[in-house]
Design brief:
462 residues, alpha/beta, four-stranded mixed sheet, globular, Aminotrans_3, cytoplasm
Length: 462
């Protein structure tokens, strides 16, 4: 049934639209009437207006804030030239420029770039690539993937299969997805910064600090990982995981030495290591890529979210020359081509905006390396008070990520409304009230976010 013409936007939305992980007809909390910089102009069900900081960076993507002039200019300039052309048999400067930038700013061995529609699609492509790679190498039985519990890699069919089978939000689709192999969750760890936490870093420098981790837990996990991988190596095409920080699986930080173990196992058994850095890449965890924290380079890398600064959907998969050359060979009945080709692959608008976003991120004076340490210091100082609240079991910060974990499932609507009333938009899930602010957030913005989260938890979860 269509909502009456005089109905508010939230009523009209409920009449027709389906939202992420929601029921048909479910009412949303607010309508967005504008977005500029770090702020959202929200309208509530009674027409009341709120100006709130987008503490989620709109699901971790709007790192430069909304409507950044450089991104808007890149978009409009390319739109005036040509908004879209097919990528089969054709190329264009925006795609070539973006590929060159990505190769220049990722591990040296990653030389080939596949431009995808979204993060989930980039994972889909990576998994297909690994299967084709193993088949071309004469290992067609290697058709499963090894990963860890607690992971999340997207909502399309193949990525669902490598998400946590119980907590990965896809348990309803067991008859649709392939059955893969899961190691236990990697042991937790905590990053402890040293020196002046808010000091800008050189773009290629490592942050000062150390990891607090449980060596005994790591040793036990490593023993199990080595034995399990050896037992199943002949059926595994590759290993996929989110480096250091598991996102939608629980915002959980783990020991980076687990990556080192898995890199060694991949080398030992001829497996491809796939790093899903869609959420963690481009400085979010305090390093340009989270896998740098373990000194590990993957064979395949998936990027998204901040790639376009949240201006539009877009992602990329990169792989080594050895992987690309293997898949490109016509051997053992294989086609000699990567079998994927989205209609909007290499969209010129996306490519132009992504290049502009990368230019902002890598600016030596005001890029991520200057912004993220300052945001991290603000989150550590501002969320510390939340640790004293009775309902809070843990507060953790890594880079521009702040997490408040409760002893109960979050009552999402009242916590969200209480935070918005204090000036910050958040979207809690499970037992977590977490934030991933835009990198351009000022110190005052970060303080407002922290006060809103702490105040909302104290008000609702007392």
């Amino acid at each position: 049934m269509t909502a009456p013409a005089e109905a508010g936007l939230l009523d009209r939305d409920a009449a027709h639209l389906w939202h992420p992980y929601g029921a048909a007809g479910a009412r949303q909390l607010y309508a967005v009437r504008g977005a500029r910089g770090v702020h959202l102009d929200l309208e509530g069900p009674g027409g009341e207006r709120h100006r709130a900081i987008d503490a989620m960076a709109s699901w971790w993507s709007v790192v430069h804030g909304h409507g950044h002039p450089a991104l808007v200019e890149a978009l409009t300039r390319q739109a005036a030239a040509f908004p879209h052309v097919m990528f089969g048999g054709l190329t264009h400067a925006p795609a070539v420029d973006l590929a060159e930038r990505l190769v220049a700013h990722t591990p040296a061995a990653l030389e080939h770039v596949f431009l995808a529609d979204s993060g989930s699609v980039s994972v889909e492509v990576a998994l297909k690539l690994a299967l084709q790679y193993q088949a071309t190498r004469g290992r067609p039985s290697r058709r499963r993937f090894l990963t860890v519990r607690g992971g999340y890699h997207g909502d399309t069919a193949a990525p669902m299969g490598v998400c946590d089978p119980v907590d990965g939000m896809h348990a309803a689709f067991t008859s649709l997805v392939a059955r893969h192999l899961f190691l236990p969750r990697p042991p937790a760890a905590r990053w402890v910064p040293e020196g002046v936490a808010a000091a800008p870093m050189a773009p290629d420098a490592a942050p000062a600090g150390h990891w607090e981790a449980n060596d005994a837990a790591l040793a036990a996990w490593e023993d199990e990982a080595r034995a399990f991988t050896a037992a199943h190596a002949d059926e595994i095409a590759g290993v996929i995981l989110e480096p250091v920080l598991q996102g939608a699986g629980g915002m959980r930080v783990y020991d980076p030495r687990c990556l080192t173990v898995l890199r060694e196992l991949c080398d030992e058994h001829g497996l491809l290591l796939i790093a899903d850095e869609i959420a963690t890449g481009f400085g979010r965890t305090g390093r340009w890529l989270a896998c740098e924290g373990a000194g590990v380079a993957p064979d395949v890398l998936c990027l998204g979210k901040a790639l376009t600064g949240g201006t539009m959907t877009g992602a990329a998969m990169l792989c080594t020359a050895e992987v690309a050359e293997t898949v490109s060979r016509r051997e053992r009945g294989m086609p000699g081509a990567l079998l994927h080709g989205p209609t909007f692959m290499g969209n010129p608008l996306m490519c132009a905006v992504a290049s502009a976003s990368l230019d902002l991120l890598t600016d030596p004076r005001d890029g991520w390396a200057a912004q993220v340490p300052r945001v991290e210091a603000g989150l550590r100082a501002g969320l510390a008070a939340a640790a004293d609240l009775p309902a809070v079991t843990d507060v953790r910060v890594l880079g521009a990520v702040g997490v408040v974990e409760l002893d109960r499932t979050v009552d999402v609507e009242p916590v969200t409304r209480a935070a918005v009333a204090r000036g910050a938009w958040v979207r809690p899930f499970r037992r977590l009230v977490y934030v991933m602010p835009p990198y351009v957030s000022t110190d005052d913005d970060v303080a407002t976010i922290c006060a809103a989260v702490t105040g909302a938890v104290e008000e609702v979860c007392a």
